[in-house]
Here is the input.
Amino acid sequence: MLVIAEVVPIVFGGLVPGFLLGLLAFRVKSRWCPRCGESTEAMRPVKRDR
Here is the structure.
């Protein structure tokens, strides 16, 4: 029981800062046009070998 009491704060002590850094570094790309709703990302042409 003593080992769990020592390990849990260490695990959460590492997870919380990592989560907060990931949350602050997250950038949302605008994938949809706010006016028409179309995708803003260019569609890649499909290569077909024939």
Observations:
- The two ends are 67 Å apart (CA to CA).
- The CA atoms of residues 16 and 49 lie 50 Å apart.
- The helical segments are 2-25.
